Amino acid sequence: MKRALLVSAMVAGAFVVAVPAAAEPAVDADRYRTDGGGYAFLYRYDGGKRVCTIASDPTTVRCGISAPAGTRITAKNRTVRPEAVEVTDRGWRYLDTLTVQERPRELPAGARLSVHGASCTALSDGGLECSVDSAGFTQDDGRFSTRGRKLG
User: Fold this and answer.
1) Rounded to whole angstroms, how far apart are CA atoms 4 and 142?
2) SS3 category, 4
């Protein structure tokens, strides 16, 4: 009986710990809608603001990032350090640059924007976590990490 209670308490404790991580407050997506029908926002990281866009058909997240030191891609026959990442339901890839015409609003720390099956959360200490299905990335605390398949 004591063993069963201990296991039940451990399971309940694990459940309670897991709930807050998925409970970031969702924001009203319409506040981030652009004139072109997509969505755009700013997030804080490493002392500055970076921009992200979310488009539909197919759902695509593009964000300015700080790529890991030594990361290089070939763009227009030049080898450059990527300044952005693109995520779709198929996977992720680096981009050489990201240009946005709109003046987006900042996504508040701790808030989550979810549209078209994409979800991005501004982390409370600066940084961002975004995903489309199982593909995504996290920019946090001096690190950039990805999930899912790397696309060509």
Assistant:
1) 43
2) helix
**pTM tops 0.70:** yes
CB 107 within 8 A of CB 124: no
Query: Distance between alpha carbon 133 and the CA centroid of its chain, in Å?
Result: 12
Residue 51 CA to residue 71 CA, distance in Å, equals 20
118, two tokens: 């994409």
Contact 58, 23 (CB under 8 A): no
Please classify residue 94 by burial: count the beta carbons closer than 10 Å to its beta carbon, then call 0-12 exposed, 13-18 middle and 19+ buried: buried
- Whole-number percent of the chain with pLDDT over 70: 85
- HSE-up of residue 39 (Cα within 13 Å, Cβ side): 23
Do the Cβ atoms of 77 and 62 come closer than 8 Å?
Answer: no
- Distance, CA of 93 to CA of 96 (rounded, Å): 10
Residue type, 26: A
